[in-house]
Write the structure tokens for this entry.
Amino acid sequence: MGNIKDLVGKVQFDGDRPIVVPPELQWIGQGRSAVVYRLQGTDLAIKIFYPGYEDLAHVEGEVYEKLNNHEFFPAFYEKGEGYLTMQYVEGITFYDCLVNGVAITDEMVQRVDEALEFACRLGFNPSDTHLKNILLTTDDEVKVIDVVRFTQEFDCPHWRDLKKAYETFYQRRYVPKKIPRFFIEFIIRLYRKRLLPI
Ligand SMILES: Nc1ncnc2c1ncn2[C@@H]1O[C@H](COP(=O)(O)OP(=O)(O)OP(=O)(O)O)[C@@H](O)[C@H]1O
Ligand SMILES: [Mg+2]
């Protein structure tokens, strides 16, 4: 995987903005701590942490190693300096399910529960499981990505609250299953400010 290290070394950031990216790297997503690319023509995803967050590669790599390639999570390949390689999961996030009107079923929610329970049994404290950290694959499987905060100690209510919102609102017959992006963002902002009755 020496060439992966070279490729990652060519990526240049301005803060959390990648400004120089080799053409073989196709952007697939970005979050608070990293940007994720697919290596062109492969099923390899490369998560490159922003400057200042490089140490998280080691933390997240260790979590993946303990999860031992369980099907609830993307297969893990390698941790490098400031980056990780893992299976590129073909699919869409639960966030995109809402935007595109793809129904989120009871079974899908249950799969996330099972994944998090599995991680709990290994001694982790699954945290930060939000709409963009869960993928519905093209084979209708569910995979939890972004396990970097599974080692934190404090209680994270995100998944619990999402499930409550699912049961209380989403499942009602008259609630639309396709929700405009601006409205989801508005709800997320209210949630972060603790302005939701949840
Ligand atoms: N293995 C993967 N296969 C497919 N898409 C992925 C994969 N890993 C990440 N992504 C996409 O990239 C996005 C960002 O990745 P990730 O959640 O790991 O970054 P992060 O910076 O740790 O996010 P957060 O803001 O939740 O901390 C995800 O929301 C998802 O859309
Ligand atoms: Mg994420």
Residues 91-192 form a domain with the Transferase(Phosphotransferase); domain 1 fold (CATH 1.10.510.10).
